[in-house]
Automatic annotation (TrEMBL):
<feature type="coiled-coil region">
    <location>
        <begin position="215"/>
        <end position="242"/>
    </location>
</feature>
<feature type="domain" description="MPN">
    <location>
        <begin position="20"/>
        <end position="152"/>
    </location>
</feature>
<keyword id="KW-0175">Coiled coil</keyword>
<dbReference type="InterPro" id="IPR027524">
    <property type="entry name" value="eIF3h"/>
</dbReference>
<comment type="subunit">
    <text>Component of the eukaryotic translation initiation factor 3 (eIF-3) complex. The eIF-3 complex interacts with pix. Interacts with mxt.</text>
</comment>
<dbReference type="GO" id="GO:0005852">
    <property type="term" value="C:eukaryotic translation initiation factor 3 complex"/>
</dbReference>
<dbReference type="InterPro" id="IPR050242">
    <property type="entry name" value="JAMM_MPN+_peptidase_M67A"/>
</dbReference>
<dbReference type="InterPro" id="IPR000555">
    <property type="entry name" value="JAMM/MPN+_dom"/>
</dbReference>
<dbReference type="Pfam" id="PF01398">
    <property type="entry name" value="JAB"/>
</dbReference>
<protein>
    <recommendedName>
        <fullName>Eukaryotic translation initiation factor 3 subunit H</fullName>
    </recommendedName>
</protein>
<dbReference type="GO" id="GO:0033290">
    <property type="term" value="C:eukaryotic 48S preinitiation complex"/>
</dbReference>
<dbReference type="InterPro" id="IPR045810">
    <property type="entry name" value="eIF3h_C"/>
</dbReference>
<comment type="similarity">
    <text>Belongs to the eIF-3 subunit H family.</text>
</comment>
<dbReference type="Pfam" id="PF19445">
    <property type="entry name" value="eIF3h_C"/>
</dbReference>
<dbReference type="GO" id="GO:0016282">
    <property type="term" value="C:eukaryotic 43S preinitiation complex"/>
</dbReference>
<dbReference type="GO" id="GO:0008237">
    <property type="term" value="F:metallopeptidase activity"/>
</dbReference>
<keyword id="KW-0396">Initiation factor</keyword>
C-alpha cells in the first residue's frame, strides 16, 4: 500500500461528481435498515449503493444492506449474488458506493476512512452516504454524501501518518473529506401520494413548530464532545511526552559525543586510533514517532460536534425567545 519511493506530488484531479441524486425508494430502504439496527442492537448499519453516473451526476437508484457478522456467509459473495439477482430483474446493479448509519453525527473513524479509500481507488465516482439516526428521529432528516480528497487518498497510499508526512501533504481534519450535495428525487406518483398524505395529517399535528425536541440531541452531543476533548487531551499528552523523550535523548547523545571527543583527543595524544561513534548511535536509536492520524480524526469529530451544537443552540434559542414572548402575551392577557 505504501509508495515511499515515489514522489509526494498530489494528483490535481478534481471530482467528476457535482452532486448526488437519490431516489426516494433508496432513501426509505436506508432509513428503514439504519433505524432497525439502531433500535434492535445499537449496531452500525452498512449497505451498498447501486446506480449509475450520468455526466456530472451520480444517481443512486437502489441499495441493499450488508450481512451481519456471519461466518457461514462471505460478504463479497453475498454482494455479487445480490447484484446478479438485481440485474436479472432489470434493476441498476452498478456499485457506486456505500452507506452507513451514524449516531449523534459520530461517523469519522479509521474503518470509514479505510473503507472509502478502497472504494474510491477501485470505483472513482463512489461516495459514502451518512445517515444520522438520532437527529432524524427528532424530525431533522440528515443525509449527507462524502468523498475523500486527493490529499487523503495520497496519505493512505503512502501509509505514513507522522507529523512531517502530514505537514508535507498539507492535510488536516478539515481536508479529509469533501461533502457532495445530495438531492432526493421522487416520481410523479410519489409526489401525488405525499400531497394526499399531507392533507390527511391532523391540523394540530403539523403545527408543533416550537417543539423543543432538540434538547435530548443537544445533551448527547455535548456528552460526546466532552469525551472527544478528553481523548484529544490524552493524545496531546502522549505527543508531549514523546517530545520530552526526544529532547532528553538528544541531550544524552550530545553528552556522550562530547565525552567520546575528549577520549579521542586523549588517544590522539598517545598516537592511538580514535574510537568510532557507531556504538553511540546503536545505543541511542531514534524513538518511533507516534502516528497522528487518530488525533486528526478526533479533532474532526470535535469540529463536527461543535458545528451541530452551534446549529442546535441557535434553533433552540430562537424557539425559547418566541415562546417567552407568547407566554408573556398570554399572562398579560389573563391579568387584564
Amino acid at each position: 500500500m505504501t509508495t515511499r519511493g515515489q514522489s509526494r506530488r498530489i494528483p490535481e484531479t478534481e471530482s467528476r461528481i457535482d452532486y448526488v441524486q437519490t431516489d426516494g425508494l433508496a432513501v426509505m430502504k436506508m432509513v428503514k435498515h439504519c433505524h432497525e439496527e439502531s433500535t434492535s442492537n445499537m449496531e452500525v448499519a452498512q449497505g451498498a449503493l447501486l446506480g449509475l453516473v450520468v455526466n456530472n451526476r451520480l444517481e443512486i437508484t437502489n441499495c441493499f444492506p450488508f450481512p451481519k457478522n456471519d461466518e457461514t456467509m462471505d460478504e463479497e459473495e453475498y454482494q455479487l449474488a445480490m447484484m446478479r439477482r438485481l440485474r436479472r430483474v432489470n434493476v441498476d446493479h452498478f456499485h457506486v458506493g456505500w452507506y452507513q448509519s451514524a449516531d449523534v453525527g459520530n461517523f469519522l473513524s479509521h474503518p470509514l476512512l479505510e473503507s472509502q479509500f478502497h472504494y474510491q481507488t477501485s470505483i472513482e465516482e463512489s461516495v459514502v452516504v451518512i445517515y444520522d439516526t438520532a437527529k432524524s428521529a427528532r424530525g431533522f432528516l440528515t443525509l449527507k454524501a462524502y468523498r475523500l480528497t486527493p490529499q487523503a487518498i495520497q496519505m493512505y497510499k503512502e501509509g505514513e501518518f507522522t507529523p512531517d508526512a502530514l505537514r508535507t501533504l498539507k492535510i488536516g481534519y478539515e481536508s479529509l473529506f469533501v461533502e457532495v450535495p445530495i438531492v432526493i428525487k421522487n416520481s410523479n406518483l410519489t409526489n401525488i401520494m405525499m400531497s394526499e398524505l399531507e392533507e390527511m395529517i391532523p391540523e394540530e399535528e403539523g403545527t408543533k413548530y416550537l417543539d423543543l425536541g432538540t434538547a435530548t440531541v443537544l445533551e448527547n452531543q455535548l456528552r460526546c464532545l466532552m469525551d472527544r476533548v478528553d481523548e484529544l487531551n490524552q493524545e496531546a499528552i502522549k505527543f508531549n511526552r514523546h517530545q520530552h523523550l526526544v529532547i532528553r535523548q538528544q541531550q544524552d547523545k550530545n553528552r556522550l559525543m562530547q565525552k567520546r571527543a575528549q577520549e579521542n583527543a586523549a588517544r590522539a595524544a598517545k598516537d592511538e586510533a580514535p574510537l568510532p561513534d557507531d556504538d553511540i548511535n546503536k545505543l541511542l536509536r531514534p524513538l518511533p514517532v507516534p502516528p497522528r492520524l487518530n488525533p486528526m480524526i478526533v479533532a474532526g469529530q470535535i469540529n463536527t460536534y461543535s458545528q451541530h451544537i452551534s446549529q442546535f443552540c441557535s434553533q433552540s434559542l430562537a424557539k425559547l425567545y418566541i415562546t417567552q414572548s407568547l407566554q408573556n402575551a398570554k399572562e398579560s392577557k389573563s391579568t387584564n
